[in-house]
Amino acid sequence: MSKEKGNNAPVTERGNSLELNIGHLYPAEMNLYGDRGNILCLVQRCRWRGIEARVKSIGLGESWPQGLDLLFFGGGPDAQQKGVARDLLETKGEGLRHDLEDGLVALAICGGFQLLCRYYRPAEGPDLAGLGFFDAWTEHPGPRVPRCIGNVVVEWEKSKLVGFENHGGRTYLGASCHPLGRVRRGHGNNGKDRTEGAIHRNTFASYLHGPLLPKNPLFADHLLRLALERRYGPMVLPPLDDTLEDLAHAAALRRGGG
Ligand code: GLN
């Protein structure tokens, strides 16, 4: 399908035009290695289909909003995570946990992922209490231990995800937490058990920066379809002409040895 906006709107049972409310958690503090591009990708893939996408920034000190259909939480350095972790639990924790448990579709990357787990032990200083939504925890082995850096290829469903990782923390999944995928190239959660990211309810977490979504259009549309169907019920999400995205994905696969 061409990428011109037009009458590409998805078909719903009622045939009405669609809208999507996208929350962006801590856009100023948690935005590493192009993570903000995930918001741009979600918005544009909606607009190409004639879906009205609205983005609500949710910053420090702001209370948890109602009526979100999709949430994005990006990565950040240890120094930023300290302030964000405190604010997350004090001003947003109860509402955020309720909505995630209720099936709000969400994507969390790296530092955002870590703060949705039980705790994050940074390179220096005390543990940061996390939301505890994922049965998982993260420990940074200290500033003298090499970080997990490089291109990553992950086996996800029957497809592959490509991206770039740069994190010191190593994340370990508890018994009730499922990985997003299996590492084919790179470190992933901890460089040991080949897990990458996590999934619980409709929340997807990953260490892949880049940003993740533009080069992984199948995954981007998976999130959009989940969010739209949760709000409107069954629908057909018209495919887009992803020639450019597919070329970028293939090039990243070759670079990553995937
Ligand atoms: N500060 C965290 C770590 O080093 C997360 C980094 C990130 O979000 N890229 O593990």
Q: Can you describe this structure?
A:
There is one protein chain. This protein has one domain (17-256): 3-Layer(aba) Sandwich (Rossmann fold). It contains 5 helices and 16 strands. It has helices at residues 37-47, 78-101, 111-115, 217-232, 243-256; strands at 11-12, 19-25, 52-58, 70-73, 105-109, 119-121, 128-129, 136-139, 148-156, 159-167, 170-173, 181-185, 195-196, 198-200, 203-206, 235-236. The chain has a 6-stranded mixed beta sheet with strand order 3-2-4-5-15-14. Strands 7-6-8-11 form a 4-stranded mixed beta sheet, with helices on one face. Strands 10-9-12-13 form a 4-stranded antiparallel beta sheet, with helices on one face. The two termini are 28 Å apart. It binds glutamine. Glutamine binds at residues 32, 75-78, 81, 110-111, 114, 140, 166-169.
Shape: globular
Measured distance between first and last alpha carbons:
28 Å
Structural class assignment: alpha/beta
- What is the CATH H-level superfamily? Class I glutamine amidotransferase (GATase) domain
Helical fraction: 25-40%
- What is the CATH top level name? Alpha Beta
Oligomerization state of this entry?
single chain
Low-confidence stretches: none
Q: Please provide the ordered H/E string of secondary-structure elements.
A: EEHEEHEHEEEEEEEEEEHEH
- What is the name of the CATH topology? Rossmann fold
